[in-house]
Structure formats: structure tokens, C-alpha cells
Amino acid sequence: MIISPEKRDFSTIFHVIGRLCLGLSMFMLLPLFCALVFGEYEPFYDFLIGFLSTASLGFVLMLLFPFKKEIGWQHSFFIVSLGWLVASVMGAIPLYLSRHWESFLDAWFEAMSGFATTGLILVKDLDHLSFSHNLWRHLTMFIGGQGIILASISILSKVRNGSLGLYIGEGRQEKIFPNIIATARFIWKVSFIYLTVGVTLFTFLLSYKGLGISKAIVHGFCLFFASFDTGGFAPQSQNIAYYHSFSLEIATMVFMLLGAINFNLHFWLWYKNKREIFRNFEIRTFIISLFSLTILLFFSLKPLTHSVIFRKGFYQLVSAHTGCGFTNLAPREILSFAPLSLTLLILAMGIGGGVCSTTGGIKLLRLGFIFKAMAGEIKRAIMPHKAVYRESFHHLKDTLIEEKHLKETFVIVGFYFLVYLLGGLMGLFHGYPPLASFFESVSAAANVGLSLGVTNPGMPSGLKLTYICEMWMGRLEFLSIFVSLSYIVSLFKK
Amino acid sequence: MRRIIFLIIFGLFPLVSYPQSLEEILKNSQDFDNRKIVFEGEVIGEPLKGEEGVWINVKQGKVSIGVFLEDSEAINKIKNYGSYKRRGDWVQIEGIFFNNCPIHLERDVHAYKLKVIKPGFLLREEISLFKVKLSLGLALLCLTLGIICFINLKYVRRD
């Protein structure tokens, strides 16, 4: 029997979405203030309209739909799925008004790409975009990276009772503290500490390169948001290549790696046991995976010198594996890689980083489980018939791999493969070459943002919508969306 | 007479450098690797310090490339760098294109000649009246809704 939502349930859902809109409108005040500071008057009106329309929608939803029921699991999934859609649509308003996006669909694509920390772009003439619009593009990554709903539940009192469902619904499997509010606040605290360190470092490096101090600060914020939240947007069209700075590339790599680490592990390293980094199953899986892919990439790019391979190949690999999407190459340069190199990048993108991090993809823990399960089956086959053998792993504590772990892993991995495949087939259907189609599809669904040039303002609208769906589904790890869809189906069966 | 004109035009042809399309150069990067190129484009951003030189970024249409100038003084010719408020100077660059530069380990152009073809200019912001009116309308709506919501919440609490 499927539990079908009632009218009262929808009232609660839309009420919370209304509060979410109010929260989002508050974030729009930051670029609004930036526009004032830099004397960007037209963008000021873009953000004023964005702020007022988002806040108005919030008030309307709160007035029309009173909070009638405590938030339960079914509400959580609806709120998360719908919340991300509404946030991306409202977040697209100031972008669209700037006229740097050809249509509202393009602006929505960019906003979803930002919130989902993907980094695929459809902006035109990025080099002439205002500071405030650039700040908003990058801020969406910070909001989305922390979790739009998570950002709200840490400040909204009424939502606290159902916070666990909302937290899980946003694609996070682990709590850091027993209390979700405390978990949300810890994630914010970690992010703000890294924000201070990151922005200071980036500002120093950029001002050393010759950027004026105010521009260096804005770019510093943008680069931090895009690297730590594994987003991949950059303020200039050449992405990281614009700066011609090896030290900046190394700094972005460090923050990409920090962003790809499980927030739970950050907590352990800060407060509990620093040695956890050497024992952690996810970190070990990451090292093995990155090392193997690096060796293979090295051979696939062999005609190039070692230093060029490091700058051009390894940077893209780290960017792909951490789900960031920063690049120091033009799409055509990545396209000129050998098919094996591109396949390796697709693999790295598909895997992603740690669970409870800002990365997308199937995640390291699940990859580790799959290999453990495979090794376990082989061991079991060569052991005596009556021997009992069970695989274990160390992730913060020693845990036995149980049936439920494997079942959940294979279901989620199966969903990811299905979405990667369907997105790739859509690319093929629109006439793009197979490798480019699958590269772009994996990049969108795993929330990476590396592109071979398929993603551009001229691509078919059908493909834009496909990638929007992939980014949305990939970020929320399917559960919330599929549960919401089945509830909607159950309404029609009533 | 015709023969003289023909000789003047085509005789001098190899001596004159004609700008090439940057998109074509990047599309056929292997063919242009380590070769002299001439191209035009808008200077964007700002000059960036490099080791023993300075970097500028030049954009032509949808593509851009980093240009390295050993002569740091050469950038003094550039007065406008493209940004939100400014259209950058349109420059002509003559230099060597490297697909994988052995010094900088990236795709770049080592320029030995920079000429400003067309100076950039300040871009005027035109604030749309529609946006101003819409902002005012939305401000009124938002304020009204906010007040109703506030009263409603207070009323619900008293209940």
C-alpha cells in the first residue's frame, strides 16, 4: 500500500517552500549590495526585481498555505524536490534580466547548474558580465553546496521537526551530530572557516598577479565558492586559464580536494582523531582511484612532456574526480585528448567524491563497497564450504558490510548509470558524437561541469532540459524525486 | 599599367601581415604550432604579471587566448581593458603560437608586436524604465504581502 498525500500535506509543503523562497530572497541581498558598491545600477534593478519577486512568492505561499501538519518523511521528499526547482527558477530571474542569457531557459539552466554545483554554462559574453551577476552565479554554488534546504532548516524554526528527512532528501547519507540542526550548523561553521582562509589566499594570489584589490576580493570569493563547493564556474570565460597562474591552480586543487572530502571526516579530523585520514575507507578508495587513473592518463597523454601532462591532464583529472569542473583548457583542447584520456575523465567524473560532501557522482564509499563486494565473493568462492566470511570497512569506525549497504549501493549506482546512459542517448539523438554525448551527460548528472563544447547557447532546447533534469536528479541522488513522483502518481490512482 | 598595379598589389602581399581568425587558429592548432600568427581581438580583464613579462587576454568572438609579452612596456599602449563597464581596446597581435608552450606549459601566443587598432570606450548603462516601474510595483506588492503575512502570523499565534 502506498501512502498518498492529502490536501493538508500539500498545504504544509507549499508553506515550507514559501519560507524557502523568503530565505533565498535574503541571499539575493548580497549581490544587490555588491551592485551598489560597484556602481552597477542596471544589475541593481535586476537583483531588486529578483529579491522582491522571490520574497513576494514566499509571502503568497505562506498566506495561501498555512502550516497544518508537522513535517514527515513524505513532506520532506516533496519539499526537497520542489524546493530545488523553485529555487533555480527564482534564482534565474536576475540572470535573465541581465540579457547575458539568450532565453529564460538558458538562465534557468545556469541557475540550476549553480545550485547543483555543476558548472556547465550558457552565459554569453561572460567577460563583460557585472560583478554582482558573477557573484550571484557563484553564490548559488555556495547555497546549493551547503544544501538549499539545509541552509533553510538551520534558520527556520518551524521546519526543525522534519529536518532529518529534509537532510537525507538532499542526498546526504550521514549525520555528524545526532541533531540535524547541530549538523547543519557544523557544516556552515566548517564552510565559513574555509571561506575565510580560502578568500584570503585567493585574494593574495590574485592581487600578486596584478588584479586591483576590490576585483581580487570579488574573484577570491568566486573562486572559493566554485572550488570548495566543487562548482566550477569562474568569473571569466577562460575559466582558470584566464589567470595564467600555476600557484593559483594548485590552490584551487587544494580547495577542490577539501570540498570533495566527507564533512563527517572534516569533523573527525578537527575534533577527534587526525589519524582517521590514513585509515578512512573513502580516502583510501580515493587515493587508489586517483592513482590508477593518473597512471592511465599519463600513458594516454604520453607524447606530451611530464610537466604539460601535469598541468593539462592531472588538473582536469582532479577537477573531474572531485566533481568541481574547473579547467585550464578550452573545450576544444579537452576534445583534442585521445579517446582513452576522455574515457578516463568520464570515469573520474562518474565516480565523484565523498558522501556528505558537495560532490556528485556515485561517490567513493559506494565504489569501495562494489570492489569490496566483488573481492568478498571471490574470497568466499575459494574458502572452505563451511567458512563464514564477512567484509568490513573503516569509515570513522569499523563496520561490517551488510546486505542493506550493498543493496542501497547497487540501487543508487544503477540509477546513476541509467541517467548517464539516457542523457548520452539524448545527445546522440540530437546528432552529437558518442564520446562527446556521454562526456557531457556524465558531467551534468555527476554535477561536474567539464565540457567538450556540446553545452553552448546554441544547443537544442530538448538537450538543455535533459541536462537540467540530470543536474537536478544527480544532486538529490534520485530518492526525493522518485518518491515525490510516485506520490503524484498515487494521487491519480485515488 | 595593369601589370604594374598587379605587381604592386601581389608583389607586396607577402610583406603585409593579414590578421587571421583566432577561431580557425585554435581549431587547427597543430598546423599553427610554433608558427608566426597575426590576429586581432579585444583585450579583456587586466594585465597579469608573469615571470619576465606580462600576460594579457585577447578575445575574438567566442574564443580567447592568453598573450605573453616579454616587453612589459608594450602594454602601456593599451588604455582600455574589457569589463562590464568598458569595451576593451581592439588590438592586433603578431607573435608565435604555441599549442603546448615549453615555458608556460599552456596554449599561448608569445607576442613581439602589439598594435592598438581601435581604442576601447566606456560603456553607458541604460537603465530600463520597465525595470524601474516593475521594481516599484513589486516593492508595493511585497510590502503589502509582508504586512498581511506578519498580521496573519500574529493572529494565528494568538489563536
Instruction: Find the count of extended strands of chain B (DSSP E, 2+ residues).
Output: 7
**Main beta sheet of chain A, described?**
2 strands, antiparallel
Shape, principal axes of CA atoms of chain A: globular
Multimerization status: heterodimer
Q: Per CATH, what is the topology of the largest domain in chain B? A: OB fold (Dihydrolipoamide Acetyltransferase, E2P)
Architecture per CATH nomenclature, i.e. the level-2 architecture of the largest domain in chain B:
Beta Barrel
The residue fraction in helices of chain B comes out at: 25-40%
Strand order of the largest sheet of chain B: 1-2-3-6-5
CATH class of the largest domain in chain B: Mainly Beta
Low-pLDDT stretches of chain B? none
Q: N-to-C SSE series of chain B?
A: HHHEEEEEEEH
- Low-confidence stretches of chain A at least 5 residues in length (pLDDT < 50)? none
Shape label of chain B: elongated
The Rg value of chain B, from CA coordinates, equals 27 Å
Give the termini distance of chain A in whole angstroms.
12 Å
**What spatial order of strands do you see in the largest sheet of chain A?**
1-2
Produce the secondary structure layout:
The complex is a heterodimer of chains A (494) and B (159).
Chain A: H1 7-27, H2 29-37, H3 41-64, H4 73-97, H5 104-115, H6 131-146, H7 148-153, H8 163-169, H9 180-209, H10 213-228, H11 246-260, H12 263-272, H13 276-279, H14 281-300, H15 306-321, H16 331-335, H17 339-351, H18 364-382, E1 392-395, E2 397-400, H19 403-429, H20 434-445, H21 461-476, H22 479-493
Antiparallel strand pairs in A: 1-2
Chain B: H1 2-12, H2 22-27, H3 29-32, E1 35-50, E2 53-60, E3 63-69, E4 86-87, E5 90-98, E6 108-118, E7 121-122, H4 129-158
Parallel strand pairs in B: 3-6
Antiparallel strand pairs in B: 1-2, 1-5, 2-3, 4-7, 5-6
